[in-house]
């Protein structure tokens, strides 16, 4: 037995996806089921933003900050429990 999943997307995106799926001999439900199965089996979400995609200024700053912290070895230790992690974060 199958179940129904409802989610919101832009009408234009839905129409484009339906058209592309039909060109491939599929319906949109087939495409979404393949994507869901891949997500569950591999625990990965594949995102391709294309060649023209650029990260936001916020993301560029966040990545730079993270790289500086890694270089300076300002890394979090491993914790055995949430209480220890919370104590470390508050220090």
Please outline what is shown here.
The chain has 91 residues and is mainly alpha-helical. It contains 4 helices and no strands. The longest helix has 15 residues, at 28-42.
Low-confidence residue ranges: none
Task: Estimate the mean pLDDT confidence.
Answer: 91
Radius of gyration (Å): 21 Å
How many β-strand stretches? 0
Give the number of domains: 1
Structural class: mainly alpha
Features:
91 residues, mainly alpha, 57% helix
Detailed description of the structure:
With 91 residues, the chain is mainly α. The protein has one domain. The chain is 57% helix and 0% strand. It is built from 4 helices and no strands. The chain has helices spanning 11-23, 28-42, 57-71, 82-90. The protein is elongated, with a radius of gyration of 21 Å.
């Amino acid at each position: 037995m199958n179940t129904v999943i409802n989610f919101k997307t832009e009408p234009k995106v839905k129409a484009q996806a339906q058209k592309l799926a039909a060109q491939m001999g599929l319906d949109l439900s087939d495409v979404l089921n393949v994507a869901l199965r891949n997500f569950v089996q591999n625990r990965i979400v594949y995102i391709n933003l294309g060649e023209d995609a650029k990260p936001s200024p916020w993301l560029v700053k966040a990545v730079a900050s993270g790289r500086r912290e890694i270089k300076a070895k300002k890394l979090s230790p491993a914790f055995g429990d949430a209480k220890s992690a919370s104590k470390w974060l508050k220090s």
